[in-house]
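Supplementary Methods S3. Complex input for the adenosine monophosphate-bound model.
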Amino acid sequence: MRIILLGAPGSGKGTQGDLLEKRTGFPRISTGDLLRLAVRRKTPLGLRAEAFMVQGLLVSDEVVEGLVRERIAEADCRVGYILDGFPRTIAQAEALAAMDGGRPEIVIGIEVDSEILIERLCGRRVCPACQAVYNVSVQSPARPGVCDACGRGLVQRPDDTAEVIRKRIAVYLEQTAPLKDYYRRKNEFRAVDGQGPTEEIAAAIARILDGTPAGTTAETAEDGRKDRRSPA
Ligand code: AMP
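Predicted complex, serialized as structure tokens:
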């Protein structure tokens, strides 16, 4: 089994991926995390990737595909795994199918409006030591600017500045959003509204994975979100 979380930066893929990891026992594989680790370790790959990441651009397909190929070959991925942030291009999706085809897969699209993404990402703070993620307005630490888990001072990711965030969203719309149609054509795409409380979104994802109940399809989930945005 393979669960692919598809969504714009700030849509909540990491949060939902963590919850799914606990629920399913499948490891969450975040290509962003793998790349940031390589950057911190100053590996040759990390040094090359960093220049793209700080500008909000995608790292080359070959580099990211190599990371994923190595990671999914590990023993803990044998039964299943969760992909967060990969694939991000059609070429990556095709590479994934070629490197690990035949595995049942479901693609969960987490849908969030652009203005909300910008707000969330501008407020995101991370712990440089344990990588815990906070948000200054909706998920703030007990002591402002200090990690609850390990006491280190929180920082902003270098690609969470307003200018780079806008670039990342534009890159998502141009290069990653077409994957929705790609997976719709394979009948593997389901959308959830990513704007409610975390637990509600997790419950919607759980319903999809447990077998979609009557009346809830990819398209109705998206329609529901649109309806809720309309003035009453
Ligand atoms: P994320 O943490 O998923 O937002 O990723 C942070 C950055 O890592 C992105 O803006 C890209 O520069 C890079 N990155 C992560 N995943 C990929 C991918 N699948 N393909 C290309 N670049 C990626």
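The pocket of adenosine monophosphate is lined by residues 9, 31-32, 35, 52-53, 56-59, 64, 85-86, 88, 92, 159, 168 (CB under 6 Å). The domain at 2-113+189-229 is CATH 3.40.50.300 (Rossmann fold).
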